[in-house]
Design a protein that fits this description.
The protein has about 700 residues and is mostly beta strands. It is built from seven helices and 49 strands. The protein folds into six domains: about 90 residues, Cadherins (Immunoglobulin-like, Sandwich), CATH 2.60.40.60; about 100 residues, Immunoglobulin-like; about 100 residues, Cadherins (Immunoglobulin-like, Sandwich); about 100 residues, Cadherins (Immunoglobulin-like); about 100 residues, Sandwich (Immunoglobulin-like); about 100 residues, Immunoglobulin-like (Sandwich), CATH 2.60.40.
Length: about 700
């Protein structure tokens, strides 16, 4: 059997479709016992059946336009299966359209360009609106906003489509209105109806239907004779209300003008400016009448004519002329005063006093004019030149006649000075002092020397080199330790410095320019090597092997604080890095012995007892004051014996004390004497000065 239902689209979930038990005439309880199942032909399960009530309900949103598109009728098919006995029922659900979609245009705006002279009745199609609904809910009609020039015509096709088009009912005039703004509305037949709008912008394209118009029928002007070339005579003004090429005006001299007049006057076709391009001579003509035409660029072109009357006034109309007979634009900066730079010839086409010409140059420049004879001058240098101070001169030669008012002409002579290598390079500093920590990395930059040369080009290209300074130890060749970049002056180290070998190094850096001959200069560089704590203290006494200890013997009856021995160490570093201190780190009995912090003397601190050991091992550490500190350890073995080695050991200790210290002691005494002497001399000088 087959059952048919009809429902509108877009029902909510759970909406009632039909009662299958009632429509099949079957008891609801039997349907539940028969294992009722609903099968759908589509991928989505749009419906469900309540087996307890037999009601078919909507389980998913149903969009008729998505399911069936523009088909006028839309169906969903279900199969109802029951068991005991097995039976199938076909259910057909018709989906009815509702007005849930408004008509929509492809875009919100559209632009049209229509020629100004378009024929009446011309049609301009507009993209139609689309409405996915069907029947009366789909697009039904269009409406056009009120306007003076266009009507709306709607074409209906056999498939029901409706296409709007604009019909020109009244002629367009771009000069009156260049743009028209219309609104087209699409409306469907639903209840209530839905609609959408599209804004139409119509640009009216210009046609050449207006000719140019001058702002006056004729123009007048006055000019003095021999006005300079390019002098503005008059500026014409014509307008054309058209646009684009149709309103683009070009000016020209009419063909009615003579060839001679065309050689004297010219007109700018863009601006309408008439300018002088030839010689105006009052003796030849006192009035010129120029015929001018203005044309637009339309097709066909339209034109207008006017006349320009130019009156010529007679004046002192010939300015002096300056002619360069000979001129050199370059001059060496070492040229002697009186060197000829240019030979100048002057003339004035006027006669009498108006034809006499005087020339001069600015007195602030190192140049002067010498009058050779009538109408000829020579330009000479008046003083020494220096390119580094002024490299370029603009020498203005002024020529004036004796007319009333006088006329003058100025000619600028550009003169460039050629550089001469007359300046030696100069270092920024007379000497450089550099502090370098020993063990510096190879290739590190120690100092950068810099020099400058006010000359130019090749004469200012500098090259640096290292030279040995006078009085330097011949064995300290600076080029062995250092290198310099020839162009940027960076001094770098070839090897690490060792303060214990070299504490000071001085050398010259020479800079030379690229001139011919080259000029040179030197600067002195002092390099002071700063000590680093890179040497551990070295024990000179007592001497022992790496894995052995020095032995000393004492008597059991020795009286404290008896001197057992003295540890003597030397540090190859200097300053604070060589300040040594002595420390007793380990001992068989720490309370029995002591080590002097600065002298290294090892002494017994109390009397020996029978319970004390017969052999004592002491570990003495010698540490410097560097950062970080370095240290060395020495092991001493003290043997307690009754026999005579005590006296022998005492002599050994004294020998060690006397043999290991004289040099150091002597240095200390000499230093103390020198310091005292300098202090006394200073105090005496201060006292004398006060007296």
């Amino acid at each position: 059997a087959q059952i048919r239902y009809s429902i509108p689209e877009e029902l909510t979930r759970g909406a009632f479709v039909g009662n299958i038990a009632k429509d099949l005439g079957t008891d609801v309880a039997k349907l539940a016992a028969a294992n009722l199942q609903v099968l759908s032909d589509s991928d989505s399960q749009y419906f469900s059946v309540n087996v307890n009530t037999g009601v078919i309900m909507v389980s998913e949103r149903i969009d008729r336009e998505q399911l069936c598109g523009q088909n006028p009728r839309c169906f969903l098919h279900l199969k109802l299966a029951i068991e005991n006995p097995v039976e199938f029922y076909r259910i057909e659900v018709e989906i009815l359209d509702i007005n849930d979609n408004p008509p929509e245009f492809p875009s919100d705006e559209v632009s049209l360009r229509i020629y100004e002279l378009a024929s009446l009745g011309a049609r301009f199609p507009i993209q139609p609106a689309q409405d996915p609904d069907v029947g009366t809910n789909t697009l039904q009609t269009y409406h056009l906003s009120a306007n003076d020039n266009f009507n709306l015509n709607v074409k209906a096709r056999t498939d029901g489509g409706k296409f709007p088009e604009l019909v020109l009912e009244r002629a367009l005039d771009r000069e009156f209105r260049a743009f028209h703004y219309l609104v087209l509305t699409a409306e469907d037949g639903g209840s209530p109806p839905q609609s959408s709008k599209i804004h139409i912008t119509i640009q009216v394209l210009d046609a050449n239907d207006n000719h140019p118009v001058f702002d006056r029928p004729s123009y007048g002007a006055r000019l003095v004779e021999n006005s300079p070339l390019g002098t503005l005579v008059v500026k014409l003004n014509a307008t054309d209300v058209d646009e684009g090429p149709n309103g683009d005006i070009r000016y020209s001299l009419s063909s009615h003008n003579s060839a001679a007049l065309r050689q004297i006057f010219a007109i700018d076709e863009q601006t309408g400016e008439i300018r002088v391009q030839g010689n105006l001579d009052f003796e030849e003509a006192t009035v010129y009448e120029i015929e001018v035409e203005a044309k637009d660029m339309g097709s066909p072109t339209m034109e207008e004519h006017c006349s320009v009357v130019v009156e010529i006034t007679d004046v002192n109309d010939n300015a002096p002329e300056v002619i360069l007979t000979s001129f050199s634009s370059t001059l060496s900066e070492d040229a002697l005063p009186g060197t000829v730079v240019a030979v100048i010839h002057v003339r004035d086409r006027d006669s009498g006093e108006q034809g006499k010409v005087l020339c001069h140059v600015s007195p602030d420049l190192p140049f002067q004019l010498r009058k050779d004879y009538e109408h000829q001058y020579s330009l000479l240098t008046s003083t020494r030149l220096d390119r580094e101070r002024v490299a370029y001169y603009n020498v203005t030669v002024s020529a004036s006649d004796q007319g009333n008012p006088p006329l003058s002409r100025h000619t600028i002579l550009p003169i460039s000075l050629i550089d001469v290598n007359d300046n030696a390079p100069q270092f920024e500093q007379a000497s450089y002092e550099v502090l370098v920590a020993e063990n510096n990395p190879v290739g590190s930059v120690l100092v950068t020397v810099s020099a400058a040369d006010p000359d130019s080009e090749q004469n200012s290209r500098l090259s640096y080199s290292i030279l040995r300074a006078g009085g330097t130890d011949p064995g300290l060749d600076p080029t062995r330790y250092l290198s310099i970049h020839p162009t940027n002056g960076q001094v770098t180290a070839k090897f690490p410095f060792d303060y214990e070998q070299t504490t000071y190094l001085q050398f010259h850096v020479e800079v030379s320019d690229g001139g011919s001959p080259a000029l040179r200069n030197r600067t002195l560089v002092h390099v002071f090597v700063v000590d680093q704590n890179d040497n551990a203290p070295r024990v000179h006494f007592p001497r022992a092997g790496e894995d052995s200890a020095s032995q000393f013997r004492i008597s059991p009856s020795v009286v404290p604080p008896a001197l057992i021995t003295k540890v003597v160490a030397i540090d190859a570093d200097s300053g604070r890095n060589a300040w040594l201190s002595y420390h007793l780190v380990e001992a068989t009995d720490l309370g029995l012995f002591s080590v002097a912090l600065r002298s290294g003397e090892v002494r017994i601190t109390r009397a020996l007892q029978e319970t004390d050991a017969s052999a004592h091992e002491l570990l003495v550490v010698v540490r410097d004051a560097g950062e970080p500190p370095l240290s060395t350890a020495v092991t001493l073995v003290v043997l307690v014996e009754e026999k005579g080695p005590e006296a022998l050991q005492g002599s050994e200790a004294r020998a060690a004390d006397g043999g290991g210290l004289p040099t150091i002691t002597l240095y200390l005494i000499v230093s103390l004497v020198l310091i005292s002497t300098v202090s006394l001399v200073g105090l005496a000088a201060l006292g004398i000065r006060c007296l």
